[in-house]
Amino acid sequence: MFDDRRQTGLQANANDASFSWWSWRPGIRPGRALLISIPLVCVGFFFILAGIYSLISIIIDNNSPPTRIPGVVTGYTSGILDNQTHLSIRLQRNGRFATITPAITPAEQRVIHSGDAVMLDYSPHLGYLYALEDHGQRYTLPGGSPLSGLFASIALILLGLLFCPYPLLLTLWGWHDLRQPAATMRGKVVGLRVSQRTRAPLGRRATHPGLTPRLGRAWYGMALETLAAQQDIVSFAIREEQHKALREGQNVEVTYSPHLHYVHSIQPIINETPLGDVKQEQAR
Q1: Which of 82, 132, 157, 171 could anchor a disulfide with 51, C-beta 3.0 to 4.6 Å?
Q2: Cα atoms in the 13 Å half-sphere on the side-chain side of 120
Q3: Which residues is 134 bridged to in the sheet?
């Protein structure tokens, strides 16, 4: 029978089911965490601020009279992306001439003719064109309304709220780890894991166990059962050379950053009481 665990380079003991390799702590250097997280936080806050500004402007524009600008219809064009008829209008604004091409409905095309003088209605704050007037008749353009961008504004705010929390948490963790001394933990190695992209046999799909990077770079992990009074199993992301120097059942002392869990060093414990003896002494 083909062994999928061997195929993917996964090394783990039979007790892997008793703990999870997943962790919110990425095991990267604090400085690198700040370089990654701070730009993402800025992007998230930009989405939130842009959504809030747009939402406030939409509410104000909906309760304010439009900005009216005169123009002259010069013809019709066909939209390449939306396959709709567009009205070509030449207008003068702030002493400058410009041409705009808003979409119109077939009914509006039949009553608005080339050469007609029209009046365009813009929202005063966002500058959104939502209606025009021709020969005293006002026409609402497709999708034209001061409230038409309401859902987009709410979506921007929600996207920023979803985007910000974890990068913000990484920023706080990285900042604290730069300012705080490294922590140490003693324990027994109960699991070793390596995940990497490998070629699958013909007829089988390649699997990517754990947090396997999609660019082919291997991820190395270590599960440590602490030697403290309460035996917890903590997983760490480690480097390749650290992984090669370890074996399951070995007692080690890990020096790591307390928040991001970046492993600075792993030292074997010499002449340390085995974990089984520690458990027996605690049971007594």
Answers
A1: 157
A2: 22
A3: 118, 137
